[in-house]
TrEMBL record:
<dbReference type="InterPro" id="IPR027417">
    <property type="entry name" value="P-loop_NTPase"/>
</dbReference>
<keyword id="KW-0238">DNA-binding</keyword>
<keyword id="KW-0963">Cytoplasm</keyword>
<feature type="domain" description="ABC transporter">
    <location>
        <begin position="474"/>
        <end position="786"/>
    </location>
</feature>
<keyword id="KW-0677">Repeat</keyword>
<keyword id="KW-0863">Zinc-finger</keyword>
<keyword id="KW-0547">Nucleotide-binding</keyword>
<dbReference type="InterPro" id="IPR017871">
    <property type="entry name" value="ABC_transporter-like_CS"/>
</dbReference>
<keyword id="KW-0862">Zinc</keyword>
<keyword id="KW-0234">DNA repair</keyword>
<comment type="similarity">
    <text>Belongs to the ABC transporter superfamily. UvrA family.</text>
</comment>
<keyword id="KW-0067">ATP-binding</keyword>
<keyword id="KW-0227">DNA damage</keyword>
<protein>
    <recommendedName>
        <fullName>UvrABC system protein A</fullName>
    </recommendedName>
</protein>
<keyword id="KW-0479">Metal-binding</keyword>
<dbReference type="InterPro" id="IPR003439">
    <property type="entry name" value="ABC_transporter-like_ATP-bd"/>
</dbReference>
<dbReference type="InterPro" id="IPR041552">
    <property type="entry name" value="UvrA_DNA-bd"/>
</dbReference>
Length: 796
């Protein structure tokens, strides 16, 4: 692999890629204009991400690493640069992808958008201080700094407590019988008991009969008295007297929880702790000095808890008190604007990052970039329309245009047809997925895509209504699940009825409460009532886009159970039987058959000074994961590593005579995943792929019990052509007598539902109500619903 070293001329307005071979790309040559909005399209698995992220972004990042850390050049070489002959004209890149980025648990909307910094500055410079108080530095308003954090809870807002009920779950036991469950086991526990006995406490009376002041001391004292213990004869061994130090159960639990290096011990200690709001700061996380400062009559904690739209209104109404305040308020409002514009005005600054969806997080980052003042860079985005109601897509397009107008290049992997239409330039990868894709079918302005043979996007972009499958009449419900007086997040006393035996779509703008209602309340309620024999639903299955495993040790074959079948076939070969090998020999997760250099991972970790550690193929097995003796065993001509390298499609042909394997392979093919390799690690699968693998695993089981399937935006990451395939499967489940509930923005999907529940009218406190419920046609005719006219358009 060599990289062009020719000086790049900036007169050439194109990024030029030559010979890209990352993943399934087949020596792709493509020219993409700089300073324009380019959308990469194609069916799922065609190679869009391999081109936009795997090649373009990875190459820009590699060049950056080389420029900041030239010493790392050899290591970078070992990891491997993207497989491409040359890329010219590439500006430095900023990636705003959603898949692989999860911020820490201490980050929040405020830290991700940098709005917290500005707000702290406002309080530091322009807040109202109590008489006589000195001005505070802006750090003093941050719970994440020593200067600002409440000393009682270290800025967490809550503290861990123990209680007698937790420490002594069974008060009928004596100390000798183990009343104090929180004590360590074995010798250390006996030691503490012996010390108490020396100190004169009754260790043989039931716990509840001990005097209250003794119980208090035993559990909670901070004293650590040292006494001489004369152990009694234990199993005929004479033990010497020793000096023992007492430690209360409370102290032991807190020490273990905060200091222990062992995760198991920490987890055990956590069982004896509860979380409660910090009494010192009342959960506001700051020192009292900081909480005494106000702006517009409110503390910084109060402003950080407001939805951004309300925060903006407070700032707009604040009396202009001096030049510093005016400038800071203007800056804050300027930063809040794009966030609200992208449909996220319902979020508050103190909302923690782990509670946000991937789409919300990406849009927050996008809004933040608008104010960064960066120009001359390329932004690479992964489906920014995910989670966005059609009513908000206009705003997204406006934001992308502004990034471009500021002098940047914008690359977007996207399926939403409104975004595709809006592009200056379109790169279609295809024609199909995996080894049937990987070519650039078209690179040019959207309008000229029309004549391109084999383009899946052209069919959907230009065909309009004709391409729709005929609408079937809506189905009638066989019953319903009722939720009454639901109170959660922004839902206030909502009553909802979910019909059974039909396909239901839940709609509404971002933040209206869809995920709360479906993913939390409905799922929990059904989960609880399922054991009741009178309840119509027998099983609940949530099919989400979470990975099917967090390590490369799980893959398609292990998840679906196919690998068990495959390993049985290998143990039945004459070679394996001769050697007496069982199924474990063919697992890469246990010693025996696997390669020990990489312990069956196929990869080894490479540590780079100052840079995130990364992976390189195992030098011993070159990624095969097994040792050579294991690889000598062949079933029908292939060894186990070669079988894991088969695509689902080729495996279906290879295992055609093995019913147990053929069934699950067919289910995977039917759902459009024929292009995946059996051994493809869970960590390399997209959310959409993970979701369809779960669905296929479900479909191959063919259950009769009435099952409720719950899916949150199942079309994320799917091309309209893939959506058709998915819908056929979901409607198939309904035909088989089950119920399906989806949270969905794609109006084609909603138009094909039997029942629609529309939440809103807005997000956050402006939402949380059911605006309309009925058949798609009924909801499309409802006034006051922001979904209605988009749905009407889709109904045609
Ligand atoms: P798209 O973005 O169009 O959905 P991708 O570029 O993600 O497609 O995938 C193209 C092909 O490359 C697929 O066959 C996919 O399974 C494969 N692939 C994706 N990521 C990896 C990876 N990290 N390693 C190996 N193959 C991969
Ligand atoms: P949707 O799914 O329609 O986008 P959500 O159900 O995610 O909406 O959110 C509805 C409201 O509940 C929003 O105001 C959101 O900020 C709030 N919310 C959602 N999840 C949480 C959470 N984990 N903690 C606090 N508030 C939340
Ligand atoms: Zn506190
Ligand atoms: Zn190895």
């Amino acid at each position: 692999m060599h990289h062009s070293t020719a000086p790049e001329t900036h007169h050439d307005p194109f990024v030029r890629v030559r010979g890209a071979r990352e993943h399934n790309l087949r020596g792709v040559d493509v020219d993409i204009p700089r300073d324009a909005l380019t959308v990469f399209t194609g069916v799922s698995g065609s190679g869009k991400s391999s081109l936009a992220f795997g090649t373009l972004y990875a190459e820009a990042q590699r060049r950056y690493f080389e420029s900041v850390a030239p010493y790392a050049r050899r290591l970078i070489h070992q990891i491997g640069a993207p497989k491409v002959d040359s890329v010219t004209g590439l500006p430095p890149a900023v990636s705003l992808e959603q898949r692989r980025s999860s911020p820490g648990s201490r980050s929040s909307v405020g830290t991700v958008t940098l709005l917290s910094n500005s707000l702290r500055m406002l309080y530091s410079r322009a807040g109202s201080y109590p008489p006589g108080a000195g001005r505070l530095d802006s750090d003093a308003f941050s719970p994440n700094t020593a200067a600002g954090a409440c000393p009682s809870c270290h800025g967490l807002g809550s503290i861990h407590r123990t209680s007698e009920e937790l420490l002594v779950p069974d008060q009928g036991l004596s100390i000798r019988q183990g009343a104090i469950a929180a004590w360590p086991g074995a010798w250390q526990g006996k030691n503490l008991r012996d010390i108490l006995e020396v100190l004169g406490y009754d260790v043989d009376a039931p716990w509840r009969e001990l005097p209250a002041k003794d119980r208090e001391w035993i559990l909670f004292t901070e004293e650590q008295p040292v006494v001489t213990v004369h152990p009694v004869r234990d199993a005929d061994r004479i033990q010497r007297p020793y000096q023992g130090t007492y430690m209360s159960a409370h102290r032991h639990v807190m020490r273990t929880f905060s200091d222990s290096k062992s995760a198991t011990l920490r987890a055990r200690a956590e069982r004896f702790l509860t979380d409660s709001p910090c009494p010192a700061c009342e959960g506001r996380r700051l020192r009292p000095e900081a909480l005494a400062v106000t702006f517009a009559g409110r503390t910084i904690a109060e402003l950080a808890a407001l939805p951004l739209t309300a925060l903006d209104a407070v700032l707009a109404g604040a009396p202009p008190d001096g030049e510093a305040a005016r400038v800071l308020v203007e800056d804050l409002r300027g930063r809040i604007g794009p966030v609200v514009e992208l449909g996220l005005g319902y979020l508050s600054l103190d909302r923690t990052a782990p509670t946000l969806s991937a789409g919300e997080l990406q849009r927050l980052r996008l809004a933040t970039q608008l104010r960064s003042g960066l120009f001359g860079v390329v932004y690479v985005l992964d489906e920014p329309s995910a989670g966005l109601h059609p009513a908000d897509t206009e705003a997204l397009l406006g934001v992308l245009d502004r990034l471009k107008a500021a002098g940047n290049t914008v690359f977007v992997v996207e399926h939403h047809l409104d975004v595709v239409r809006h592009a200056d330039w379109l790169v279609e990868v295809g024609p199909l997925a995996g080894e049937h894709g990987g070519r650039v079918l078209y690179s040019g302005p959207p309008r000229r895509l029309a004549g391109v043979a084999g383009s899946a996007t052209a069919r959907h972009l230009f065909a309009g209504r004709e391409a729709d499958p005929g609408r079937r009449p809506v189905r009638t419900a066989s019953g319903s699940v009722r939720l009454t007086a639901v109170e959660r997040h922004n839902l206030r006393g909502v009553d909802a009825a979910f019909p059974l035996g039909v396909f239901t779509a839940v709609t509404g703008v971002s933040g209206s409460g869809k995920s709360t209602l479906v993913g939390q309340v409905l799922a929990r309620e059904v989960g609880e009532r399922i054991a009741d024999p009178g309840f119509p639903v027998r099983r609940l299955v949530e099919v989400d886009q979470k990975p099917i495993g967090r390590t490369p040790r799980s893959n398609l074959a292990t998840y679906t159970g196919l690998f068990d079948v495959v390993r049985k076939l290998f143990t039945a070969t004459p070679q394996a039987r001769e050697r007496g090998w069982k199924a474990g020999r063919f697992s890469f997760n246990v010693p025996g058959g696997r390669c020990e250099t990489c312990q069956g991972e196929g990869f080894v970790s490479v540590e780079l000074l100052f840079l995130p550690s990364t992976y390189a193929p195992c030098p011993e097995c070159a990624g095969a994961r097994y040792n050579t003796e294991t690889l000598d065993v062949r079933y029908d001509g292939l060894n186990i590593a070669e079988v894991l390298g088969l695509t689902v499609e080729s495996a279906a042909a290879f295992f055609a005579g093995v019913p147990a394997a053929a069934r699950s392979l067919r289910a995977l093919e039917d759902i459009g995943l024929g292009y995946l390799r059996l051994g493809q690690p869970a960590t390399e699968l997209s959310g959409g792929e993970a979701q369809r693998i779960k669905l296929a695993t479900e479909l191959q089981r063919q259950r009769r019990d009435h099952t409720l399937y719950v899916l949150d935006e199942p079309t994320t990451g799917l091309h309209p052509a893939d959506v058709r395939v998915l819908l056929r499967q979901l409607h198939g489940l309904v035909e088989a007598g089950h119920s399906v509930v989806v949270v969905e923005h794609d109006m084609e999907v909603v138009a094909g539902a039997d029942w629609v529940i529309d939440l809103g009218p807005g997000g956050g406190t402006d939402g949380g109500r059911i605006v309309a419920a009925g058949t798609p046609a009924e909801v499309a005719a409802t006034g006051g619903s922001r979904t209605a006219h988009h749905l009407a358009r889709a109904l045609g």
